[in-house]
Design brief:
Elements: H1 2-9, H2 18-45, H3 47-65
Helix pairs in contact: 2-3
């Protein structure tokens, strides 16, 4: 992420081409897809992981809101 921020802030570099942006977005979408797929596989193998993973997220959100 730092490299992307540096590229955007540095005005001396040429902007990314449309094809470069498409490739970057396609790569990001693939990583997100694989992350979800692996998580689903893990939760399918260990049903107790699915129950535990849903609860802490709600608690974190509630804690952040001061509830």
């Amino acid at each position: 992420m730092t490299a992307t921020t540096t590229q955007a802030a540095d005005k001396t570099q040429t902007p990314m081409t449309r094809d470069e942006v498409k490739k970057m977005l396609r790569d990001a979408a693939f990583v997100l897809h694989m992350t979800r797929r692996v998580r689903a596989e893990i939760e399918a193998e260990w049903p107790e992981a699915a129950r535990k993973s849903a609860n802490p997220r709600r608690q974190e959100v509630a804690a952040g809101l001061g509830v």
